[in-house]
């Protein structure tokens, strides 16, 4: 039996184009493979970056210490970390969804969890090459608008909103707060929502430069590719 793909939203999940409540999982569980891939939508990806160069055991202790001190503690947190040995940087990412993942992983033997932001990052790199490592992108997927900002290939900001004007307000506030330099104020926008985004954004005084790019089609293709995300409950 091939891998089963389930799309996780805040209140529902989707399997084979059908949408279910989480308390309906028992109704379809027997039709699922033991090998499952879960994609998390509608949640913001949080990130923190630390400098250091650690061996394997030291790295594990460092991660556990940072999770205990600097990340929210509850049974709904998933996390992932990356070690950049070249730049001596440790990146820790967290996202909500642990309780929903736990429901959908019942009796699973192999499990891959993918926040959509990681798939968006791959999409950006495929489309922009090295430019993507310091790029920003706005796109829409399944009725939600996503903003992903990368610096040196690392996630720095990840916003999710149901309304474009709210998303643009958050980006605009960030632009003012961080006094983003003129040469860094370009934001790529998926071509499917470019005109709509530009129409709303014309009311802002201090503007990013919006650049149209066809990212939605490639993102849809990548939804079905492997992209691992380690998950663990923070107790």
Class inferred from helices and paired strands = alpha/beta
CATH class of the largest domain: Alpha Beta
CATH superfamily of the largest domain: Protein of unknown function DUF3822, C-terminal domain
CATH architecture of the largest domain: 2-Layer Sandwich
The SSE string, one letter per element, is EEEHEEHEEHEHEEEHEHEH
Instruction: Give the spatial strand order of the biggest sheet.
Output: 3-2-1-4-8
Number of domains: 2
How helical, in percent, are the residues?
25-40%
Average pLDDT metric: 88
List strands and helices in order, with pairings.
Blueprint: E1 4-8, E2 12-15, E3 18-21, H1 25-28, E4 35-40, E5 46-51, H2 56-70, E6 77-84, E7 89-96, H3 98-104, E8 110-115, H4 116-128, E9 136-141, E10 144-151, E11 154-161, H5 164-178, E12 186-190, H6 194-201, E13 209-213, H7 216-222
Parallel strand pairs: 1-4, 4-8, 9-12, 12-13
Antiparallel strand pairs: 1-2, 2-3, 5-7, 6-7, 9-10, 10-11
